[in-house]
Design brief:
heterodimer; A: alpha+beta; Helix Hairpins; TATA box binding Protein, subunit D, domain 2; 2 domains; four-stranded antiparallel β-sheet; 3 helices; B: alpha+beta; three-stranded antiparallel β-sheet; 3 strands; about 15% strand; TFIIA_b-brl (chain B)
């Protein structure tokens, strides 16, 4: 279930919009679109697990936190991210990202997704 | 880094499309629709700006470059390679369709002209965003025919520019018609900034392994994250965070 989270990503949203468009044009059934989304959930989590090697750290001030139904939601401000492309890469290639404004974290329980 | 994100997204798209192919065949949906889905998906992803590759990564993206340039320059010359590519694709479908069985050609026949149009529309999607001028031209086009025949176009203008369609319709339209183009441009940029505010700001979607708190200090270990920061997408396998409440 928790992999449904990634539907909210840009990649997931773009797929949902594309499917909606095709459904509106009558080229697809909603049922088939659901199957596509299920495939997307599977593929995206698989790639995140096996293809993405980047690691990162972040610091910032926590404005709001909430824990409900095993989902943490954080609203942070003044966040500084450091992203390293490779998990074994040298520490000198950190890339700094300082997003403007607040950052919303939506975090699901890793243990729940492993059970699936 | 950004190349990695692009590569991962590309492989997700490829993977999903190949894996759902049997489902499409089973449901009797033409494969052209699947290809159209792929094109739409890639277009929307590029239009979202989440990948917006740095110059050195541009040659990595065979389909990204012309569109990116098109969105910045707005010229048709740079857009042409894209058009020819999509035309090539439609030609491929032309070859495929006759080989299919009869009932499927019935479903695919209406799909074809629509497909030929669809990508062209989507290449134009990013264009109005940066300058805001095409939108202004649109607005003027719709305001000008309004003067000779005021009654029917008011609904037309309402459908094309829903933001103008408030309560006091008539008064708004008179004001808009009376405004100079510069004022209207200002008005439109206001609207654009409003829509920017509606968009969710920076988001991080991830799974947490551990979330700890001691007094006002929080620590969390995250895995498998998808982040959208300042409009760009980033992925991470693991991340540790420290926060102060």
């Amino acid at each position: 279930m928790s992999t449904l989270l990634y539907r909210e990503s840009k990649l997931g949203n773009c797929l949902v919009d594309s499917l909606d468009e095709l459904i509106e044009q009558g080229k697809l059934s909603g049922e088939l679109a659901m199957k596509v989304m299920a495939q997307f959930d599977e593929c995206f989590i698989d790639k995140l697990e096996h293809k993405v090697t980047a690691k990162g750290t972040f610091k910032g001030s926590l404005d709001t936190y909430r824990f409900c139904d095993n989902v943490w939601t954080f609203i942070m401000s003044d966040v500084a991210f450091k992203i390293n492309p490779s998990i074994n890469g040298s520490n000198t290639v950190f890339r700094d990202v300082r997003p403007d404004g607040k950052v919303k974290f939506v975090l699901v329980d890793a243990k729940l997704s492993q059970k699936d | 880094m950004q190349q990695d994100v692009t590569a991962v997204y590309r492989s997700v798209i490829d993977n999903v499309i190949t894996k759902v192919k049997p489902e499409f065949v089973q449901e009797g949906v033409d494969e052209a629709v699947l290809d159209e889905l792929r094109v739409l998906w890639e277009q929307k992803l590029l239009a979202s700006g989440a990948l917006d590759p740095p110059p050195q990564a541009a040659q990595d993206l065979r389909y990204a470059r012309p569109i990116d340039q098109g969105s910045y320059t707005g010229s048709t010359a740079t857009g042409q390679p894209v058009g020819t590519e999509s035309r090539k694709r439609t030609r491929d479908y032309d070859e495929q369709v006759p080989s299919l069985s009869q009932p499927q050609t019935v479903t695919s026949a209406p799909a074809q002209p629509q497909f030929a149009q669809a990508p062209v529309q989507h290449y134009r999607v990013p264009q109005p965003q940066p300058p805001g001028q095409p939108a202004l031209q649109l607005l003027q086009q719709h305001l000008q025919p309004q003067q000779p025949q005021p009654a029917p176009p008011s609904s037309q203008a309402g459908t094309r520019i829903p933001q103008q369609d408030g309560p006091g319709d008539d008064a708004d339209e008179e004001q808009a018609a009376a405004k100079t183009p510069a004022q209207e441009l200002g008005n439109l940029s206001d609207l654009e900034s409003d829509s920017d505010e509606e968009q969710p700001a920076n988001t991080v979607l991830a799974q947490f392994e551990k979330v700890q708190r001691t007094k006002n200090r929080w620590k969390c270990n995250l895995i498998h994250g998808v982040m959208n920061l300042n409009g760009r997408d980033y992925l991470f396998n693991k991340a540790n965070g420290e926060m102060q409440f």
